[in-house]
Amino acid sequence: MTSGPGRIVIVGASLAGLRAAEHLRAGGFGGALTLVGDEPHGPYDRPPLSKQVLLGMVRPEGTALPRTREIDAEWRLGVAAAGLDRERRRVQLADGSEVEYDRLLIATGVRSRPWPNESEAALDGVCVLRTRDDAAHLGRLLARRPNRVLIIGAGFTGSEIASACRERGCAVTVAERGEAPLVGALGGMVGEVAARLQREHGVDLRCGVMVTSLEGDSAGRLRRAHLSDGSALDAEVAVVALGAVRNTGWLEGSGLAAGPRGVACDAGCRAFDVHGIVTDDVFAAGDVARTPHPLFGYQFLSLEHWGNAVAQAEIAAHNMISADARRRPHLWTPSFWSAQFGVNIKSVGAPSMGEEIVVTQGSLADHRFAAAYGYRGRVIAAVGFDHGKWMGGYRRLIEQAAPFPPDLPGGNGQRPGPARFPDPALPSHGPTVTLTGHSPNEKRVVFTPSRA
Q: Where is this region: Disordered (predicted)?
């Protein structure tokens, strides 16, 4: 290992950035370590923001991530990265200062997609939910006891917010351009179950419509939303939940292969430049990174998953301080969970890649089931509603490229049907697993996930 002196800079002081720093120190790195973060807060956990924090079970400041070890780092918080000079190996910060590096880890994650009309987005009552400050702001809005909360977008975040607002006793309307909630992430059949779940819990769910404009009163407070079907809706709070934007703008002009889809990397988390040449001093991890995976035809995966951020940060840190022969690939199988309307939802694999789906356990009518997704005759993903304990078995089927439909003991004998994913180009919520392009290499590999 090259664990001696040197300077490593991590841009992004959240989950991936913190875990990478801890693994660097655990791996023996003894040089200078700097973490840069655009928020004034230290690393904190984001999943509770749309669940426990909105329900008042945890205060926003109570979401700080636990530390596994001391990292002896310089923290540059509350200042965003503004540019990257790769020739001089310097990260340029928004306050005009620069930070030198020998190796750089990009872990800048994503931000919420804003409401496109800036004047409407500035209305009192219009918000997004991504950061700790966003959660505190939305909590204050809900404390006013609004007559109605409008949620624009019914992906995982929008659906979790709707669940929390209903649990708080708020009247909730959800507007979704797609045919059902979660349709971009899990497809139409599962989306129908999610739709019934929302309506059974009192949500005014409106699918196949868009919010076209937001209207304020003379004091600048939100009062009404206008929809594409010609209707209007009175609401005092509107939460924009239209997906995420990867934080790569500061890399413009750097020569890296970075854009709206994220930072393109090899399987070892090393970033590519715009010519397709892999760098050896710039790495990426977490939501902002996209890497090829042999399970999914070497297509590049962008994952907005908590577990992926942790696993990828460990691989990136290991490879940053390791000789070539000791480097490892990032082969984590995607896994995601959500809690909403009293149901625990968990998925493994890449559902949005699925062409077909079959219910393998349980019942759609009872909102308790497991289903497998098929792609070209093999199991590519699975989802469970209150069937999370079975997802480990489906993960093994995915990793073994098991035939689809799977032949499971005690299966219910249902036949596969279309997975019904919408056009990904539609401006709505999207999948939590995004596949973007592929390698022209057609080599076959034996998938051996790292157990380290």
A: 402-452
